[in-house]
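User: I'm writing a tutorial on reading structure tokens. Could you give me a worked example: one chain, its sequence, then its tokens, then a sentence or two explaining what the tokens reveal?
Assistant: Sure. Here is the example chain.
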Amino acid sequence: MAVGGRVLLAALALVMATVPAGSGPTGPGASPVRAAAAPVNAPQVDRFHSIRTFDMVAEPVRLRIPALQVDTALEGLARQPDGTIAVPDNPNVAGWYDEGPRPGQPGPAVIVGHVDSVNGPAVFFRLDQLSPGAARLCNRPCNS
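And here are its predicted structure tokens:
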């Protein structure tokens, strides 16, 4: 949305590693994955490494940033004819660049939203107050 001749947006690159809940490989010929037992006195968390990869991840539908009290639906955004990324129509809703990686896939998932509008503060009004490492939660349709 143009305000005073300027487009006010905030872009947030999210690289979110998520591991969906599941019971392991499925399908014909799939065999269960068994983890090697760790020594009793070694913390298993420090030794965990998933052998599964997730090339396809469900589309994100919601973004939450608790430190900023942000809880917004996400809409898929493509490129405009001039090559720029589209922006959300509603200043209180964020969008994700659907031609790039989705949150949970390798690479930066690009989330965009307005900082303000003609009606006042918008979804990312307080984004400049976000501390490095602050929690950013992105939900998929299955609420994972």
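What the tokens reveal: The chain has a mean pLDDT of 74. Residues 1-17+59-144 form one domain.
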